[in-house]
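Record pair follows.
FIRST:
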Amino acid sequence: MARAIWSGVLTFGLVTVPVQLFTATEDHTVHFRQLQRDTSDRIRYQRVNERTGKEVDYDDIVKGYDLGGGDYVIVEPDELDEIAPGKSQVVEITGFVDLEQVEPVYFDRTYYLAPKGEEYTGVYELLRAALEKENKTGIATFVMRGKQYLVALRAQEEVLVLHTLHWADEVRDPHQELPVLPGRGEAKGKEMDMARQLIGALSIDWNPEDYHDTYEERVKELVDAKAKGQEIVSEEAPPQATNVIDLMEALQRSVDQTRKGRERPSPGQRKVKRLQAGGKKDGKKKEKAARGGKDQLKQLSKGQLYEQATELDIPGRSKMNKDELISALTKAAS
């Protein structure tokens, strides 16, 4: 059971409901320790007095606002809590907006908001269901751990979700930050029609379970291989930029390839079909099918080949180069 990281009350209008805040996501990144090269000695960070060089206890540390010239305004942690005692315990909804009005760049972190007890579930569910039916998002502010947050409160199935948002002055203007931006209306004509066809051909239903962190898997395989004294093959370089002259051809080939890919079964599916057919194909037909499959596999990147090898659980795939992956996939499909 997760532990609440904040508790207080949620208010909208004159309605108040006690709530608790819980982290909605977790980090699955492979973490490394910092060591001194050629040793197993851990590197540790300490809070050290810059003048004396001595370590300072956490309780002896206060906040200082730099006035310049070596002068500071000293602020105690308790003083920060005292200036907003109510704000640190209240999520106050000031209005409701359509979710699509909040641009993605403003979203930061996501939390679950839960009622603080069984006796508050009725009011909690009333707000959740009303938000869901109206397709609205509550905009609110609250203070947590000495910092005020702008947040968006929205309904998911059975739970309220709270997103912390960036303040307007924290979001950079792309026209001021980016060296090159196209003008609106530059994309048109046959290229636009073909790009829309490609988007249509690649349109799918959102299913987050279909995606996983392949880079993390590669990191784990790298660690495992090095622990066994083995080497791991590096990935290929990224593809080159599309030449504007060849844009139409690239779009057309992309649409055709996507359509054929959806009609064509994967190597694993072909293997299952062969097994279900009882292996009726003779050796020459199998050899021909393998050659056809190899030609198709050669068009894929090494990363795509590796994903297929992972799906088929091909042993030793992490140490294979592109040709070896193609050979192993062709063998698995035969």
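SECOND:
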Amino acid sequence: MSSSPLVMALAKRLQAAGYEDVPTPFKVASVNFEFTWVLRGRAGRALDLVIVVDTMTGGVGETDFAIVRRRIEALSRALDISGSRFVLTVVLAGAAASSEIEGLAETCRVLLVEPIEVELDGTPTNARAARQLDDRIRVLLPLEIPPREGGQGGEQTAEETLQRQLPATLDQAFLKVLLDASREGETVVERELGKFLDAHMKTGNSP
């Protein structure tokens, strides 16, 4: 795997968001594929397959975009042939021409992460760099609703708006469980809802 600080920063951020590494090379439909870094989601993002391509210093031929495109297209075909439900995302770490991005976008979702200020181990050097990294891969990260600081603004948060629309008799503990689960994805929400309904059906109580 590449030791590029930018690639390390991407990998560490996605790992912190619940993604796990996929050892490379990996096999799909009897074909071996090798990329700088590969991760897959868990829980609500279990169908996300993320390919990190080091366009600056990639050691597996990733500085040649024609090769990168052929590999991604071959991987996409292999996933289709195998009946995989994975959603393929390619993260270009470094630089890429708009025409190159458009070409890849015909096959998969493409994110471009241009160089940001990071330490050699991939740690952003400051809060601004951390925000820049998050902004560039936001679609891959769990939705977070930041708390409103005291005394700032009069608008309600999304959670406050939702709670005002719900009946006061609703189980507040259950509502909190659902709100927490929503940060992990649809699958986790469905699981918690199912557990709640099963429990009430067994006891004969109404939700």
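COMMENT: Helices lie at 5-16, 65-81, 98-105, 127-136, 158-165, 172-182, 186-203.
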